[in-house]
Amino acid sequence: MIDFNALNRAIEEADSIILFHHINPDCDALGSQFGLKSWLNENYPDKKVYACGTMTSSQGEWPASDAYDEEIIARSTAIVLDTATAVRTDDQRFMQAQKVVRVDHHPISEPYGDVVLVDPKAAATCEILSAYFRFAGKNVSVRTAEFLYKGLLTDTLRFSTTNTTSETLKEAAWLAEKGIDIPSLNRELFDLSMNEFRLTSLIRSKVSIEACGFAWLIMSEHEQQEYGVSGSEARGHIDEIGHVKDFKVWAMFTERYIDEGTVYDGSLRSKKAAVNSIASLYGGGGHKNAAGVKGLTHSQLQEILALLKKAAEEE
Ligand SMILES: [Mn+2]
What we know:
By secondary structure, the protein is of the alpha/beta class. It is 39% helix and 20% strand. Strand 1, helix 2 and strand 2 form a beta-alpha-beta unit. The structure holds manganese (II) ion. Manganese (II) ion binds next to loops.
Protein backbone atom coordinates (compact mmCIF):
# COMPACT_ATOMS: atom_id res chain seq x y z
CA MET A 1 0.00 0.00 0.00
CA ILE A 2 1.13 3.50 -0.55
CA ASP A 3 1.74 5.91 2.28
CA PHE A 4 -0.81 8.71 1.98
CA ASN A 5 0.49 10.21 5.24
CA ALA A 6 3.78 10.97 3.50
CA LEU A 7 1.93 12.82 0.72
CA ASN A 8 -0.20 14.61 3.27
CA ARG A 9 2.88 15.76 5.21
CA ALA A 10 4.63 16.96 2.05
CA ILE A 11 1.53 18.99 1.09
CA GLU A 12 0.91 20.37 4.59
CA GLU A 13 4.54 21.50 4.93
CA ALA A 14 4.77 23.27 1.56
CA ASP A 15 3.81 26.93 1.05
CA SER A 16 4.30 26.64 -2.68
CA ILE A 17 3.56 23.53 -4.76
CA ILE A 18 4.47 23.06 -8.37
CA LEU A 19 2.89 20.25 -10.38
CA PHE A 20 4.66 18.58 -13.29
CA HIS A 21 3.60 15.90 -15.76
CA HIS A 22 5.21 13.88 -18.53
CA ILE A 23 6.03 15.01 -22.05
CA ASN A 24 3.08 14.70 -24.45
CA PRO A 25 0.64 14.62 -21.54
CA ASP A 26 -2.36 12.35 -21.80
CA CYS A 27 -5.62 12.84 -19.94
CA ASP A 28 -4.33 11.00 -16.86
CA ALA A 29 -1.35 13.35 -16.65
CA LEU A 30 -3.59 16.41 -17.15
CA GLY A 31 -6.47 15.07 -15.06
CA SER A 32 -4.20 14.30 -12.11
CA GLN A 33 -2.43 17.65 -12.46
CA PHE A 34 -5.55 19.83 -12.68
CA GLY A 35 -7.49 17.64 -10.25
CA LEU A 36 -4.76 18.06 -7.65
CA LYS A 37 -4.43 21.77 -8.41
CA SER A 38 -8.15 22.36 -8.01
CA TRP A 39 -8.30 20.30 -4.79
CA LEU A 40 -5.30 22.18 -3.35
CA ASN A 41 -6.76 25.58 -4.32
CA GLU A 42 -10.09 24.74 -2.73
CA ASN A 43 -8.71 23.25 0.48
CA TYR A 44 -5.50 25.19 0.99
CA PRO A 45 -6.28 28.70 -0.31
CA ASP A 46 -3.10 30.09 1.27
CA LYS A 47 -0.77 27.83 -0.67
CA LYS A 48 0.52 28.86 -4.07
CA VAL A 49 -0.08 26.12 -6.66
CA TYR A 50 1.28 26.02 -10.21
CA ALA A 51 0.30 23.54 -12.93
CA CYS A 52 3.23 23.41 -15.33
CA GLY A 53 4.11 22.10 -18.70
CA THR A 54 2.98 21.80 -22.25
CA MET A 55 -0.69 21.18 -23.00
CA THR A 56 -0.44 19.15 -26.15
CA SER A 57 -3.34 16.80 -25.55
CA SER A 58 -5.89 16.91 -28.34
CA GLN A 59 -8.32 14.96 -26.17
CA GLY A 60 -10.67 16.84 -23.88
CA GLU A 61 -10.71 20.43 -22.73
CA TRP A 62 -8.18 21.59 -20.14
CA PRO A 63 -7.30 24.84 -18.41
CA ALA A 64 -4.18 26.75 -19.46
CA SER A 65 -0.97 25.97 -17.65
CA ASP A 66 0.54 28.49 -15.24
CA ALA A 67 3.54 30.73 -15.78
CA TYR A 68 6.49 29.87 -13.56
CA ASP A 69 10.24 30.30 -13.42
CA GLU A 70 13.31 28.87 -11.75
CA GLU A 71 12.85 31.00 -8.64
CA ILE A 72 9.38 29.56 -8.13
CA ILE A 73 10.69 26.02 -8.64
CA ALA A 74 13.51 26.61 -6.14
CA ARG A 75 11.13 27.61 -3.35
CA SER A 76 8.47 24.98 -4.08
CA THR A 77 7.74 21.34 -3.44
CA ALA A 78 7.44 19.63 -6.82
CA ILE A 79 4.83 16.93 -7.34
CA VAL A 80 5.52 14.92 -10.48
CA LEU A 81 2.44 13.10 -11.76
CA ASP A 82 2.05 10.03 -13.95
CA THR A 83 5.71 10.07 -15.02
CA ALA A 84 7.68 6.81 -14.99
CA THR A 85 11.20 8.18 -15.32
CA ALA A 86 12.72 11.53 -14.37
CA VAL A 87 13.80 12.19 -17.94
CA ARG A 88 10.18 11.93 -19.15
CA THR A 89 9.16 14.91 -17.02
CA ASP A 90 8.51 17.72 -19.44
CA ASP A 91 10.68 20.20 -17.55
CA GLN A 92 13.89 18.79 -16.13
CA ARG A 93 14.20 21.74 -13.72
CA PHE A 94 11.75 19.97 -11.39
CA MET A 95 14.87 18.52 -9.75
CA GLN A 96 15.76 21.99 -8.44
CA ALA A 97 12.69 22.03 -6.21
CA GLN A 98 12.99 21.91 -2.39
CA LYS A 99 11.50 18.45 -2.39
CA VAL A 100 10.30 16.11 -5.15
CA VAL A 101 7.18 13.99 -4.66
CA ARG A 102 6.31 11.36 -7.25
CA VAL A 103 2.73 10.13 -7.62
CA ASP A 104 2.44 7.50 -10.30
CA HIS A 105 1.06 4.14 -11.34
CA HIS A 106 3.83 3.06 -13.73
CA PRO A 107 6.07 0.28 -12.40
CA ILE A 108 9.19 1.68 -10.74
CA SER A 109 11.86 1.30 -13.40
CA GLU A 110 13.95 4.08 -11.99
CA PRO A 111 13.76 5.47 -8.46
CA TYR A 112 13.45 9.24 -8.28
CA GLY A 113 11.87 11.65 -5.83
CA ASP A 114 12.16 12.24 -2.06
CA VAL A 115 8.63 11.01 -1.42
CA VAL A 116 7.49 8.20 -3.71
CA LEU A 117 3.86 7.12 -4.00
CA VAL A 118 3.75 4.53 -6.71
CA ASP A 119 1.01 1.94 -7.00
CA PRO A 120 1.49 -0.13 -10.16
CA LYS A 121 -1.86 -1.82 -9.50
CA ALA A 122 -3.71 1.46 -9.89
CA ALA A 123 -5.23 1.90 -13.35
CA ALA A 124 -4.42 5.60 -13.41
CA THR A 125 -2.62 8.24 -11.40
CA CYS A 126 -6.09 9.77 -11.02
CA GLU A 127 -7.17 6.59 -9.20
CA ILE A 128 -4.37 7.09 -6.64
CA LEU A 129 -5.32 10.75 -6.16
CA SER A 130 -8.98 9.86 -5.74
CA ALA A 131 -8.03 7.37 -2.99
CA TYR A 132 -5.83 10.05 -1.44
CA PHE A 133 -8.61 12.65 -1.48
CA ARG A 134 -10.92 10.12 0.17
CA PHE A 135 -8.23 9.45 2.79
CA ALA A 136 -7.65 13.18 3.41
CA GLY A 137 -11.37 13.77 3.97
CA LYS A 138 -11.41 17.34 2.71
CA ASN A 139 -13.80 18.95 0.23
CA VAL A 140 -13.86 17.44 -3.27
CA SER A 141 -15.75 19.68 -5.69
CA VAL A 142 -17.50 18.57 -8.88
CA ARG A 143 -14.71 20.27 -10.80
CA THR A 144 -12.01 18.28 -9.00
CA ALA A 145 -13.99 15.04 -9.39
CA GLU A 146 -14.46 15.64 -13.12
CA PHE A 147 -10.72 16.12 -13.69
CA LEU A 148 -9.95 12.82 -11.95
CA TYR A 149 -12.78 10.97 -13.66
CA LYS A 150 -11.41 12.07 -17.05
CA GLY A 151 -8.03 10.52 -16.22
CA LEU A 152 -9.66 7.32 -14.99
CA LEU A 153 -11.92 7.02 -17.99
CA THR A 154 -9.17 7.52 -20.56
CA ASP A 155 -6.35 5.47 -18.98
CA THR A 156 -8.77 2.52 -18.72
CA LEU A 157 -10.30 3.16 -22.17
CA ARG A 158 -13.70 3.53 -20.53
CA PHE A 159 -13.09 0.88 -17.86
CA SER A 160 -12.22 -1.87 -20.32
CA THR A 161 -8.47 -2.49 -19.96
CA THR A 162 -6.79 -5.23 -17.91
CA ASN A 163 -5.69 -2.69 -15.30
CA THR A 164 -9.33 -1.83 -14.45
CA THR A 165 -10.00 -3.26 -10.98
CA SER A 166 -12.73 -3.10 -8.37
CA GLU A 167 -10.64 -0.31 -6.79
CA THR A 168 -10.83 1.65 -10.05
CA LEU A 169 -14.59 1.29 -10.12
CA LYS A 170 -14.88 2.19 -6.42
CA GLU A 171 -13.00 5.41 -7.04
CA ALA A 172 -15.09 6.12 -10.14
CA ALA A 173 -18.27 5.56 -8.13
CA TRP A 174 -17.02 7.83 -5.36
CA LEU A 175 -16.18 10.55 -7.90
CA ALA A 176 -19.59 10.07 -9.55
CA GLU A 177 -21.23 10.77 -6.17
CA LYS A 178 -19.83 14.30 -6.38
CA GLY A 179 -22.31 14.98 -9.17
CA ILE A 180 -20.22 14.72 -12.32
CA ASP A 181 -21.89 14.71 -15.73
CA ILE A 182 -20.93 11.26 -17.05
CA PRO A 183 -22.42 11.41 -20.58
CA SER A 184 -21.03 14.86 -21.29
CA LEU A 185 -17.54 13.84 -20.09
CA ASN A 186 -17.72 10.83 -22.41
CA ARG A 187 -18.70 13.04 -25.33
CA GLU A 188 -15.98 15.57 -24.54
CA LEU A 189 -13.32 12.86 -24.47
CA PHE A 190 -14.40 10.39 -27.14
CA ASP A 191 -16.58 12.02 -29.81
CA LEU A 192 -14.66 12.35 -33.06
CA SER A 193 -14.23 15.47 -35.13
CA MET A 194 -15.04 15.08 -38.83
CA ASN A 195 -11.30 14.97 -39.58
CA GLU A 196 -10.74 12.25 -36.99
CA PHE A 197 -13.60 10.30 -38.49
CA ARG A 198 -11.87 10.45 -41.88
CA LEU A 199 -8.56 9.53 -40.25
CA THR A 200 -10.03 6.43 -38.63
CA SER A 201 -11.24 5.30 -42.06
CA LEU A 202 -7.69 5.69 -43.37
CA ILE A 203 -6.29 3.69 -40.43
CA ARG A 204 -8.69 0.82 -41.02
CA SER A 205 -7.95 0.80 -44.73
CA LYS A 206 -4.18 0.57 -44.19
CA VAL A 207 -4.02 -2.35 -41.76
CA SER A 208 -1.97 -5.39 -42.74
CA ILE A 209 -3.27 -8.55 -41.13
CA GLU A 210 -1.13 -11.64 -40.51
CA ALA A 211 -2.84 -15.03 -40.10
CA CYS A 212 -1.30 -15.41 -36.60
CA GLY A 213 -3.35 -12.48 -35.34
CA PHE A 214 -0.85 -9.67 -35.73
CA ALA A 215 -2.23 -6.48 -37.30
CA TRP A 216 -0.17 -3.41 -38.05
CA LEU A 217 0.14 -0.30 -40.14
CA ILE A 218 2.55 2.50 -40.89
CA MET A 219 1.25 5.99 -41.44
CA SER A 220 3.49 8.08 -43.66
CA GLU A 221 4.61 11.61 -42.89
CA HIS A 222 2.68 12.68 -46.00
CA GLU A 223 -0.56 11.18 -44.68
CA GLN A 224 -0.06 12.87 -41.30
CA GLN A 225 0.27 16.18 -43.11
CA GLU A 226 -2.74 15.51 -45.30
CA TYR A 227 -4.90 14.84 -42.24
CA GLY A 228 -3.28 17.59 -40.18
CA VAL A 229 -2.22 15.34 -37.30
CA SER A 230 1.05 14.77 -35.48
CA GLY A 231 2.43 11.26 -35.22
CA SER A 232 1.31 10.93 -31.61
CA GLU A 233 -2.18 12.22 -32.45
CA ALA A 234 -2.44 9.69 -35.27
CA ARG A 235 -1.24 6.86 -33.01
CA GLY A 236 -3.78 7.97 -30.45
CA HIS A 237 -6.31 6.28 -32.74
CA ILE A 238 -4.70 2.84 -32.43
CA ASP A 239 -7.77 1.72 -30.53
CA GLU A 240 -9.54 1.86 -33.91
CA ILE A 241 -7.97 -1.56 -34.62
CA GLY A 242 -8.13 -2.73 -31.01
CA HIS A 243 -11.55 -4.30 -31.05
CA VAL A 244 -11.17 -7.20 -33.43
CA LYS A 245 -11.65 -10.73 -32.09
CA ASP A 246 -8.93 -12.21 -34.31
CA PHE A 247 -6.21 -9.71 -33.38
CA LYS A 248 -3.84 -10.76 -30.59
CA VAL A 249 -1.14 -8.15 -31.09
CA TRP A 250 -1.52 -4.90 -33.01
CA ALA A 251 0.70 -1.93 -33.67
CA MET A 252 0.69 1.41 -35.39
CA PHE A 253 3.82 3.22 -36.54
CA THR A 254 4.15 6.78 -37.74
CA GLU A 255 6.93 7.99 -39.97
CA ARG A 256 8.96 11.01 -38.86
CA TYR A 257 11.61 12.89 -40.83
CA ILE A 258 14.75 13.94 -38.98
CA ASP A 259 18.03 15.35 -40.29
CA GLU A 260 19.55 11.87 -40.50
CA GLY A 261 16.64 10.42 -42.47
CA THR A 262 13.34 8.75 -41.62
CA VAL A 263 12.53 7.22 -38.23
CA TYR A 264 9.43 5.50 -36.90
CA ASP A 265 7.52 5.93 -33.64
CA GLY A 266 5.23 3.11 -32.63
CA SER A 267 2.34 2.24 -30.34
CA LEU A 268 2.16 -1.45 -29.48
CA ARG A 269 -0.88 -3.22 -28.06
CA SER A 270 -1.84 -6.77 -27.15
CA LYS A 271 -4.48 -8.80 -25.40
CA LYS A 272 -1.95 -11.05 -23.59
CA ALA A 273 1.63 -10.75 -24.89
CA ALA A 274 4.05 -8.50 -22.98
CA VAL A 275 4.65 -5.84 -25.60
CA ASN A 276 6.47 -3.63 -23.08
CA SER A 277 9.37 -6.10 -22.98
CA ILE A 278 9.60 -5.87 -26.79
CA ALA A 279 9.45 -2.06 -26.58
CA SER A 280 12.19 -1.99 -23.95
CA LEU A 281 14.62 -3.67 -26.38
CA TYR A 282 14.40 -0.44 -28.39
CA GLY A 283 14.48 2.08 -25.55
CA GLY A 284 10.70 2.22 -25.20
CA GLY A 285 8.41 1.05 -22.46
CA GLY A 286 4.96 1.16 -20.97
CA HIS A 287 2.50 -1.36 -19.67
CA LYS A 288 2.31 -5.07 -20.45
CA ASN A 289 -0.51 -4.68 -23.00
CA ALA A 290 0.16 -1.10 -24.10
CA ALA A 291 3.63 0.19 -24.82
CA GLY A 292 5.45 2.59 -27.10
CA VAL A 293 8.77 3.05 -28.90
CA LYS A 294 10.32 6.08 -30.54
CA GLY A 295 12.90 6.80 -33.21
CA LEU A 296 13.27 3.36 -34.78
CA THR A 297 15.39 3.06 -37.90
CA HIS A 298 13.92 1.25 -40.87
CA SER A 299 15.81 -1.95 -40.01
CA GLN A 300 14.74 -1.73 -36.34
CA LEU A 301 11.18 -1.34 -37.57
CA GLN A 302 11.51 -4.57 -39.54
CA GLU A 303 12.95 -6.30 -36.45
CA ILE A 304 10.19 -5.15 -34.14
CA LEU A 305 7.50 -6.17 -36.65
CA ALA A 306 9.06 -9.66 -36.69
CA LEU A 307 9.12 -9.78 -32.86
CA LEU A 308 5.50 -8.67 -32.57
CA LYS A 309 4.45 -11.24 -35.15
CA LYS A 310 6.35 -13.91 -33.19
CA ALA A 311 4.60 -12.83 -29.97
CA ALA A 312 1.22 -13.29 -31.69
CA GLU A 313 2.28 -16.69 -33.07
CA GLU A 314 3.45 -17.95 -29.68
CA GLU A 315 0.18 -17.20 -27.96
MN1 LIG B 1 -1.49 7.18 -16.46
